[in-house]
What does this fold into?
Amino acid sequence: MALTDAPGTPGAASTTKAAGRDTMPVTILPASSRARRSRLGRIAANTVLLAISLVYVLPLLWMVLASVDAHATFQLSLPSPFTLSNFDAVLNVDTTFRPMLNSLVLCGGGTLLCVVCSILAAYPLSRYRSRMRRPFLYTILFSTGLPITAVMIPVYSMFVQVNLIDSIPATTLFLAASALPFGIWLMKSFMDGVPIVLEEAARIDGANTMQVLWRVVLPLMWPGVTVVTIFTFIGMWGNFFVPFALLLSPEKLPASISVFTFLSSHSSSQYGQLSAFSILYCIPVVMLYLLLARKLGGGFALGGALKG
It folds into this structure.
């Protein structure tokens, strides 16, 4: 019979001590201390987030208050007196209506071209394998980080040589081309999330490549298309340098250039009118987001398609 030490014997104590020689003592905090630390952590995080939010909210709050202030200044203050004359002053053809229409033509057409070309380019990159696939993706990734100012001088020279300067369609094409690398990269990321088994099932039923793309893949990745559309439109809507360099006629300038001309043609005290114009300038972007926001909440509709 093998002899074992009882739990209370010295041998057992030495064995226990030897077994626990390399272990560190563990301090277990009371539940109240853990709750207090968690509460302090949440308070600190909320304080930091509130401070960051104020940095963004205060300029927006100044813009809203200054737009209805008859004597607006750089200081944040309540309107005194309250007036809508600032909006009446900027709501005219030369200041707002025609530049807004030009911006919608430029940015709407450029966004449509960019999204369609991104879908057509992202599909083979997502579904087919090739030795040139990885270098091409790295080229696209490099192009997304290339600043637009680095290529504007040769682009301007090319536009002058081919007589495309001061042309809204040519500027629209260039805006779409400049946003295409980011659109392709982002669209491919969303397209990779669509299971290929659904395409194989559609091909068995006799669908060709374009039918698979437009009837199977796209309906399942509308949130991705929506994200690319919103980001592309916002980037074009706030683009100042491209239309400023490629468009010369005042009647062809978009609203992003009107901000610059508005500042240069008015005295420095017209902050109320500038704020009113800025609010009107933000409306198309907000409307686009509100129209497409419901597409973002649903996520990818893959659950029911993959069951069974």
